[in-house]
Amino acid sequence: MSASGSANYEYVVARVRSRRASLFSDDEYRKLLRMGTGEIARFMEETEYEDAVNALGSRFSGVDLVEYALNRTLAENFRDLLRWSEGRLYEQVARYLRKFDAWNAKTVLRGLYSDATADEVRSDLIDAGEFSEDFLDRLVAADSIESVVELLDGTLFDAYIEDAFEVYEETGTLVPLENAVDRAYYENLVPPKTGGGEAAELYREFLEAEIDFRNARNALRLARSGADVDPAEYFIDGGALFDRTEISQLVGNRSELVTRIRESRYGDELTVALDELEDAESLIGFEHALDRALLEYSDHLSYVYPLSVCPVLAYVLAKEREVDNIRAIARGREAGLSEAEIEEELVIL
Amino acid sequence: MFDTLAQFVTILAEETGSSPAIPQGAAAALAVGLAALGAGYAERGIGSAAVGAIAEDRDLFGTGLILTVLPETLVILALVVVFAA
User: Fold this and answer.
1) Contact at 8 Å (CB) between B56 and A15?
2) Angle, nearest 10°, between helix axes A62-84 and A37-45?
3) Subunit contact A10:B55, Cβ cutoff 8 A
4) What is the pLDDT confidence band of residue B16, given thresholds at 50, 70 and 90?
5) Considering the domain boundaries, does residue A181 fall inside one?
6) Which of A119, A194, A279, A338 has the fewest Cβ atoms within 10 Å of its own Cβ atom?
7) A190: closest CA among A241, A237, A136?
8) Cβ contact (<8 Å) for A15 and B56?
9) Tens of pLDDT, residues A287-304
10) pLDDT beneath 70: ranges in chain A
11) Upper half-sphere CA count for residue A240 (Cβ side, 13 Å)
12) Whole domain around residue A150: which residue ranges?
């Protein structure tokens, strides 16, 4: 667990691959789909979620138990990744896992905005990023959005969130703050283009794919909603597919946007999804297809370059998907959705 | 300076006569040593991957052990050279 010395890809990749292989399969999801929330918790007790379910079992039940167990296991898993990695690998994984810092910052802001209690907010935080436990506690204890912004002084989000706070004070909506947090994360994600050799190059390729997909999703959502928002404002720098000026034009013209994605390097993985999008009007289907394509692309990268950071990042993505899927099933069951409806919400490779 | 060097070389050449710079036994030892070095380097990566796999699943101990020592064959083959020499 240090940033010095050489990277230990072999060790980390072997462990990660083993964990990747033990993620839930199609069959297990299908089994889960037929269960009630209590049964889901019991089923999870027999898997790697055992510790979390046992630890939280006395305090929560039903959907809450499932949800908190998922969050806790996710955080433990990603802390493990950091514990194992050394050298450059540690640096790259840590940089990527700041995603959870962004998530935590947003959760705290949303909690304050919606007057949630500190306990509720704290239990929704995922303790996997760079923020220490103490710092998270202090964030949760803050009594206004302004003091959260002050607390974030000196972190990655500093410069972005200060400007956004002024906008927030004028408009009273949370969107600019959330947007600032996301932008801060993504724009610091891709390391500068100088040097670093093949390892850095691969890392960049992976992250560019993620940013491209995020941009594509935002663009399509905007195109779909027809809202009168300047797409350039929501654009995230650092991708390879679009640039800021292009995206404004493409949002106005959906078929051109689709063609553009089809002709890009992700075209092969996305063909089916793009056909679907052109035929149907459903954006949800396409977004899930994007998720699936990103998963496939990350797996592809991790097989082509086995001794690199790619398998680790692919695992992070896959694990997040699993957690999202189980949560969707548990929440869907609770809300009384039918099996078919829930199945549509799942992203399974 | 160059004179003395030239003299030294001549003396050396006279002393060793026509025998090679590295005698046969030493060459064989060198071959085994280099092979062992290569095997060690190969085992470094495999070993750390094997330990990672075993940490996740203890049943992989046998497989991990076998894969880890596979490059050891390099040294065994290199040992043949000693007897051939």
Assistant:
1) yes
2) 30
3) no
4) low
5) yes
6) A194
7) A237
8) yes
9) 787 788 788 888 888 888
10) 1-4, 192-196, 225-233, 252, 254, 273, 277-282, 349
11) 13
12) 99-188
- Write out the DSSP string of A22-53: TS--HHHHHHHHTS-HHHHHHHHHTTTTHHHH
Residue A135 in any domain: the answer is yes
Number of domains in chain A: 1
Instruction: Please tell me if residue A327 touches chain B, with a CB cutoff of 8 Å.
Output: no
Secondary structure, 3-state, chain B? CHHHHHHHHHHHHHHHCCCCCCCHHHHHHHHHHHHHHHHHHHHHHHHHHHHHHHHHCHHHHHHHHHHHHCCHHHHHHHHHHHHHC
Evaluate whether residue A61 is within a structural domain: no
Contact A332, A341 (CB under 8 A): yes
Cβ within 8 Å, pair A14-B45: no
pLDDT tens, residue by residue, A145-165:
888 888 887 777 877 888 788
Q: Which residues of A touch B50 (CB under 8 A)?
A: 14
What are A233's two structure tokens?
Answer: 């404002």
User: In this structure, what token pair is assigned to residue B13?
Assistant: 């050449």
pTM score > 0.90 for this model? no
Percentage with pLDDT > 90 across chain B? 47
Contact B52 A19 (CB under 8 A): no
Cα–Cα distance for residue pair A109/A98, rounded to 1 Å? 17
- Chain A stretch 4-63, residues whose beta carbon is closer than 8 A to a beta carbon of chain B: 8, 10-15, 18-19
> What number is the average pLDDT over the span B34-39?
94
For residue B56, give the chain A residue with the closest CA. A15
Tokens describing residue A305:
């370059």
What tokens appear for A331 in the block? Answer: 């929440």
Q: Which two tokens stand for residue A35?
A: 């269960």
Q: Which two tokens stand for residue B26?
A: 């030493």
B68 lies within 8 A of chain A by CB: no
User: A-B interface: how many C-beta pairs under 8 angstroms?
Assistant: 30
Please, are residues A2 and A90 in contact by the beta-carbon 8 Å criterion? yes
Length of chain B (residues): 85
For residue A218, which amino acid is it? N
CA pair distance A292, A309, nearest whole angstrom: 20
The domain ranges of chain B are 23-84
Interchain contact, B52 vs A18, CB within 8 Å: yes
Cβ(A136)–Cβ(A111) under 8 Å? no
